[in-house]
Amino acid sequence: MGDIKFFLDDDFLLHSKQAKILYHEYVKQLPIIDYHTHLSPQNIAASKKFESLTEIWLKGDHYKWRAMRAAGIDEKFITGTSPAKEKFLHWAKTVPQTIGNPLFHWTHLELKNPFRIERYLNGESAEEIYDQCNSLLQTDSFNVVSLIGKFNVQIIATTDDPCDDLISHQVIKKNSPGFAVTPTFRPDAYIQISNIESFISNVHRLEKIANIEIKDLGSLIEALRQRIDFFHSNGCRISDHGLRYIPGVIYYSRQLDLSFQSVLKNSAGATMDNDHFTGYILSELCKIYYSKNWVQQFHLGALRNNNARLQNLLGADCGCDSIGNYQHADGLSALFNHLDESGQLAKTILYNVNPADNELFATMAGNFSDGKIKGKVQYGTAWWFLDQKDGIEKQLGTLSVMGLISTFIGMTTDSRSFLSYSRHEYFRRILCNLFGAQIEKGELPNDEKWIGKILQDICYNNAKNYFNFDGFK
């Protein structure tokens, strides 16, 4: 394999003359707006240097963990106590087996950018690549801030608990690193009540930081409103929600309030209609987001934490999630119609994880345009299991025929890794190849300036305008 020509050349994934022109002359050099990530603001504030390629690349990466388990690698070499180098060597031996999986492309893109390594990673090349990358990671030009700069990132939105003090965001802003980092309000733990013990613990945290006694639905909403105000004062303009589905019941009822009060008092046998609770609190939060001119995001459809053994060992996000099979249409329609009727529907992004629901999500997004905001309700970029060539092409194709792809706000990494910015390059190459192929077939005009401008909008301009990011420097 080491003697085979490296496949990641300048025209990787670009299969026509038109695709190459569109990519290299119109979108390649555009800055990156990463409007949804799980990056650590603490690491950005500290301008962290990673000790090894294992730490920056494998720690917390459940995509790689899944692949290693599937390849028969013992857990001690994945998340266990084995030395960092041993973990990396076992990952390197796994990489050739990921052929056909997006990990094969991502791995080599992330070695090429920013490490400039144009070699296949396998058992034979592993030690040399490991040592070369580790040497670079010890230099100032490969600390977190420098890495972000290498990828030409302009704006990053992190994902943050409502009880976060946002001190790291304040430090980043004070340090003026050359890019903006804004928090995102993610209240999942405070609007889902299936695990009562965990929920009560979260409520006590919220009470303490908001300095509000939470004794009923109204006081819970008021405490969350107070945190939204705090987030807004620290530059937050985005919320996010990771739910299985949007509940169809969204209205207040006295019985719901009484049940909630019983749960808060730990009354014996207290029960709640979990969907009704989530639906009502979510609808009230959406109204507050609208009043703040925020963008609201909904990541829907994942069936999480399927493997109890690994969850008990490692916690959530350990690589045991999958695509769920839920009913989305009625709940989405009920929530958005309720908000639209009262004129309180904020700009919205819908992310779908089940490809069987692509058309459902795309057509639902088109129901609530208001003639005032371009692309007000977005059918969001291919997410999670769909964030690969086939999934991206299907998402783009569905959006093209069911909506207006010209209004699309493009790619976001949704990643915990500071090396994942190569995924923006991956997306841009796939996008240009799709349009180039249509030009070549005569399905679109061969007008590179016109098409090039549309692709620039998708890759950068639309997101900048949608999120009102002109104010971020």
Summarize the structure.
The chain has 473 residues and is an alpha/beta fold.
3D architecture notes:
There is one protein chain. With 473 residues, the chain is α/β, with parallel strands linked by helices. It folds into 2 domains: 17-47 and 144-471, TIM Barrel (Alpha-Beta Barrel), CATH 3.20.20; 49-142, uronate isomerase, domain 2, chain A, CATH 1.10.2020. It is 48% helix and 8% strand. The chain has 20 helices and 10 strands. It has a 5-stranded parallel sheet, with helices on one face. It has a 3-stranded parallel sheet with strand order 1-2-3. α9 (167-175) links the parallel β2 and β3 (180-182). It is globular, with a radius of gyration of 23 Å.
Features of this protein?
473 residues; alpha/beta; TIM Barrel; uronate isomerase, domain 2, chain A; three-stranded parallel β-sheet; 20 helices; 10 strands; globular
CATH class of the largest domain: Alpha Beta
Number of strands: 10
The span between the termini is: 45 Å
Give the fraction of residues assigned to helices: 40-55%
- Secondary-structure element order, N to C: HEHHHHHHHEHEEHHHEHHEEHEHEHEHHH
Cα-based radius of gyration, to the nearest Å: 23 Å
Q: Biggest sheet, open or closed, and with what strands and sense?
A: 5 strands, parallel
Beta-strand fraction estimate: 5-15%
Poorly predicted spans: none
In DSSP terms (H or I, runs of 4 or more residues), the helix count works out at 20
Secondary-structure arrangement, i.e. CATH architecture of the largest domain: Alpha-Beta Barrel
CATH topology of the largest domain: TIM Barrel
What average pLDDT do the residues reach?
A: 95
The assigned structural class equals alpha/beta
Number of domains: 2
Looking at this structure, what is the CATH superfamily of the largest domain?
Metal-dependent hydrolases
Strand order of the largest sheet: 4-5-6-9-10
Shape label: globular
